[in-house]
Amino acid sequence: MRLRRRAPGTASRRLCSDAEHAVLKALRAEMQGRRGEDEVRAAIEQSNLPALHDLMLPRGASHTAQIDHLVATSAGLLVVETKRLSGRIVGHSQDDHWRQVFAGEPEDAPPRRIYSPLRQNAVHCAAVYEAVRDIEADIFVHSRVVMTGVTEIAPQLAPFVLTLAAFTAELRSAHAPQPDGATARALRRVAALAARYDGRRSGTMVSGSG
To answer: Residue 144, class by beta-carbon neighbours within 10 Å (0-12 exposed, 13-18 middle, 19+ buried)?
Structure first.
């Protein structure tokens, strides 16, 4: 970002163009997203369940799936999508987009639309299943959307979204017994595929006892 020289005698302030403002907004969103992922990863690591973090998988012939966390439990694989948001999130589970609303903003404020994390994670689950289905065709792949931060979830969405506390409680209950052989092999398959995949974001990270 470039600082513009102020005229003599004027108050000191930093001006930025629309493009620079967009860059700052994107950086803030990235930082918030990383913070949410770190919070969820810490909860997973405390559970000591086998898990992968921050991985990319191929999806079809020319697309990718960017997955925040993949956890192996006795119930199957949990594909975890993390969102760290503020304000109130409204919408329905079948909607393509949700809305983010802040207290005190005018009624005619432009809507802030968020692509549905449920839709997003359904694609991730399909990519995981595609990678492991030859190991065990009946393996269970479950979607989990975890919201961190100070967020109010509309009642219509609450059954489909977990708070960090609720997700942590689920991990604790899933700790015993450990994943069965098919689920553990499936996790290793995904790790190997992500490690070979050149488009992965920053390297697959492994945690847990698996």
So the answer is: buried
